[in-house]
Inverse folding.
DNA sequence: AAGTGGTCTAGACCACGGC
DNA sequence: CCGTGGTCTAGACCACTTT
């Protein structure tokens, strides 16, 4: 909860400050902030640097540091559906389609790293943006992690908040695959699009800091309402001429274009 | 060319070192590297921190800093097709379908920020991975930037290398949109997939450091051979309760799930 | 205890922008 | 010119891992 070191304290403090200001206004000079928070300039700069890298601030040498316009094509970071929609300027909504406890079975068990005979809570939700269907989300969580979850819990609260507050589970990392797909008849009906419409298929696995798999989520997003926008960086990798011994990691994974 | 400050020099030096080592071996202690390169520890650490953040190194307190396994699901960074394919363990290839100089027209002119009557070089290439079709790439470059480009130039060389070496153009940033789509009849034939197969549509705009638009690229990737894998970060945004005045930037753009 | 990375400081000097 | 951010230093002390 409480920031553990000065860096985190400063980072949070500056974030608070930033979020209390309008876009485009400058934050106080670094040296002032150092005084105010009682830290050295290096420490303060580390915090501000990170916030700038994350898109909250824009630095301009000689002029100052300014609150940045909310970057929409932000980093591919772990955001909830609700936050994602709000960033896109739409009002998030949700309709729970089903909530059941099922036996994992082989494929699901594998993805959640539990026994195929383990119990798994499966929640299916239709996700809305501005009242209209945006995505179908199917959530799988090992039942052992969330005893006593009820359908009502999923209506208002963010699932991540619920995990944190009620079960003390903090999601720390995740991996997500992105594929193009087309909607089947059921998805088409729910999403209100013609059959075989282009759509995104996201599959996400989330873990706690100790590596425990918390959830496996499969989401189908309408391709006509949802697009990804990515900022490409210079990629100064400077790949060497002779290329290193290439491993074969068994899986086909991926990166860019 | 030459690094301008110590940070860049150190960063490049350490990257060289890293790339000369096997995965998993430790790099020398920070204090040794400081001596070797003649910089203070803060400066060295900044370089190592960045390399760690970019996935080249892994730090472990009390143990050391180690060469990381090449992250395949690396940052969404600006890689060429060839490098991307090599990372995925496939051999890149290319077949030029057409190369012509055309008049931009309104939509293309808008994307390249040139007059609709400006001349634009359009190159269409079938991109291969392990000899099999992977993507169709349509490249548009203002003719003024690349006088005298011939079809042969595109066969072997990376287009970015060609830009850099022959025309002195360094691509510095870019923006890319990602959408799901389905193949039309022409694309299906070229990609050797059934009609209406799921596919990715990438649209990329690249700029030099001074903001000049270098290229607009439209690529269609086979959905059955290509997937994106993204590492999600903790997203410590700590979104506030009251949400800020939301702009409406006119476009729908995007970020995550 | 020794060695490693992690945090932090107080201050110096440089580069750029605006007055 | 002054105020801003950008770079860099030399050293202190802490936290963790290994021996």
């Amino acid at each position: 909860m409480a920031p553990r070191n000065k860096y985190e304290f400063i980072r949070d403090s500056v974030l608070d400050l930033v979020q209390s200001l309008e876009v485009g206004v400058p934050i106080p000079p670094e040296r002032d902030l150092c005084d105010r928070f009682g830290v050295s300039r290096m420490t303060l700069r580390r915090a501000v640097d990170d916030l700038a890298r994350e898109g909250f601030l824009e630095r301009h040498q000689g002029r100052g540091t300014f609150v940045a316009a909310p970057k929409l094509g932000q980093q591919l970071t772990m955001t909830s559906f609700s936050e994602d929609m709000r960033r896109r300027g739409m009002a998030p909504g949700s309709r729970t389609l089903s909530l059941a406890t099922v036996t994992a079975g082989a494929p699901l068990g594998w993805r959640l790293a539990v026994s195929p005979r383990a119990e798994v809570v499966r929640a299916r939700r239709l996700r809305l943006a501005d009242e209209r269907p945006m995505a179908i989300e199917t959530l799988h969580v090992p039942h052992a992690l969330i005893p006593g979850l009820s359908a009502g819990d999923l209506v208002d609260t963010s699932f991540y908040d619920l995990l944190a507050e009620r079960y003390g589970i903090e999601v720390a990392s995740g991996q997500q695959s992105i594929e193009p797909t087309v909607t089947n008849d059921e998805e088409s009906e729910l999403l209100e699009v013609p059959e075989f419409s282009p759509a995104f298929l996201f599959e996400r696995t989330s873990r706690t800091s100790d590596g425990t798999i918390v959830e496996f989520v499969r989401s189908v997003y309408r391709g006509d309402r949802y697009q990804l926008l990515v900022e490409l960086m210079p990629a100064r990798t400077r790949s060497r001429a002779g290329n290193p011994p290439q491993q074969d990691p068994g899986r086909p994974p991926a990166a860019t274009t």
Summary: Residues 29-31, 45, 48, 59-65 of chain A lie near DNA strand D (CB under 10 Å from a C1').
